[in-house]
Design brief:
- The chain is built from eleven helices and two strands; from the N terminus they run ααααββααααααα.
- The protein has helices at 2-13, 20-37, 42-65, 73-95, 120-142, 144-154, 156-161, 166-192, 198-213, 218-238, 244-258, and strands spanning 111-113, 116-118.
- Helix 9 crosses helix 10.
- It is globular.
């Protein structure tokens, strides 16, 4: 899901948003604040956290990127890095440096399959991820705004000539990317805890999945994310848990050497 967030902004701007991991962190920390600290119902907290992080994503784009007229890609990337550092600092001031837990979405006992233990929260992760992908597929193929975003992904100048407000499409892409990042943060927090500096690691993992699947290809991102996760788990089990993260980066390097466009390549709009 983090990789999908990368792809949405990449398709709209041709730039990579290195603050994407911070959206994930903010989603998890916001859910903890609303549900764990304030005691608001979990379902209500879920939507409040999505709205809050979406607003942060929109403000991020409107205040830093929107005022610029056709900024170079390097400038956009540097802005995203600066915002990432800013958001991390603000999160540290707001929540401190402690790690915070979040109760699972359901109290179902772990599932045992052939001696392996499957956390019930993983089923929520898979189910919500699948739902997000299906909703995005419908949005991009069957809605006018979604088709406008696809047009911007193909050729922003041509889209502008057809009356599409490209600037607003970029703002929308940041809002959508932030919302998806928030959802990702909330569904993994019950399994991993969350703290102010977790976003960098999650962002790097999402970037790896985006590269392996093909930057700009959301289906490739989902397939690559599952592939990297499975390889990391097998590597941790059969080799060493200390090298778990290295296996994901090894896959990324192999793909860059052997198939630079990614396993499925960049999605071409028909």
């Amino acid at each position: 899901m983090v990789a999908i967030g990368f792809n949405i902004i990449y398709n709209a701007t041709d730039a990579l948003n290195f603050a994407q991991g911070e959206f994930v962190m903010l989603g998890g920390m916001s859910m903890i604040m609303f549900h764990g600290i304030l005691g608001i119902n979990m379902a209500v907290s879920f939507f409040l956290a999505v709205l809050l992080v979406t607003a942060v994503g929109i403000l991020f784009e409107r205040l830093t990127i929107h005022p610029l007229k056709k900024p170079p890609l390097v400038t956009v990337i540097l802005i995203t890095i600066a915002v990432s550092i800013l958001l991390k600092g603000l999160a540290m001031l707001a929540w401190g440096k402690d790690s915070y837990p979040l109760e699972p979405f359901s109290s179902t006992k772990p599932i045992m399959i052939w001696g392996a233990v499957i956390n019930a929260q993983i089923l929520w992760v898979l189910g919500i991820t699948l739902a997000v992908v299906l909703l995005l597929t419908y949005f991009f193929k069957f809605t006018l705004i979604g088709k406008s975003l696809r047009a911007c992904a193909m050729n922003r100048d041509a889209a502008a000539c057809m009356g599409i407000n490209v600037k607003w499409m970029v703002t929308l892409s940041f809002g959508m990317s932030a919302a998806i990042g928030a959802v990702a943060g909330m569904i993994i927090t019950p399994m991993t805890l969350m703290e102010y500096d977790r976003g960098a690691v999650l962002g790097i993992k999402g970037f790896s999945a985006a590269v392996v699947g093909g930057v700009g290809n959301s289906l490739g991102a989902m397939v690559a994310g599952l592939l990297i996760g499975i390889v990391e788990s097998f590597g941790a089990g059969f080799v060493s848990s200390g090298y778990k993260d290295a296996f994901g980066f090894l896959i990324m390097l192999l793909v860059l050497f052997l198939r630079p466009g990614g396993l499925l390549g960049k999605y071409e709009v028909e």
